[in-house]
Design goal:
64% strand, 122 residues, mainly beta, single chain, globular, 8-stranded antiparallel beta barrel
């Protein structure tokens, strides 16, 4: 992942699949960097495991509805813009959404087929 400052759009969607999870999408380099969250981000302090997935198409920023192949449905919970400082092991975010506003951190924990991160409010 390239380091540096980036600006883009973000979305958090509820993905009604097995298991139920929430997807965090960050627009970057013509795609959406994607993490699945075990629980939805809430007001106040939180720390949520975030499993990194393959990049998604930009269309998922605005999409709501059924996913082909019986892979569940998605509903947007929040969307907005972000500014971020990216490095190899962390992403410091300033989110400006309708629900999520302020400073957040994605911090790398473990490599693997789906690298594990922590997503938390700073």
């Amino acid at each position: 992942m390239d380091v540096g400052t980036h600006v883009g759009r973000f979305t958090i969607s509820e993905h009604a699949a097995t298991p139920l999870h929430w997807d965090l999408f960050l627009e970057r380099d013509g795609a959406l960097k994607t993490w699945s969250l075990a629980s939805p981000p809430v007001a106040g302090p939180f720390s949520i495991e975030a499993l990194q997935h393959f990049d998604h198409r930009l269309a998922y920023l605005d999409y709501e509805g059924a996913i082909s192949g019986g892979r569940g449905t998605v509903k947007r919970l929040d969307t907005g813009s972000y500014e971020a400082e990216w490095d190899a092991t962390s992403i410091r975010l300033e989110l400006s959404g309708a629900v999520l506003k302020g400073k957040f951190l994605l911090e790398f924990r473990n490599p693997g087929p789906r690298p594990a991160w922590d997503f938390r409010r700073m």
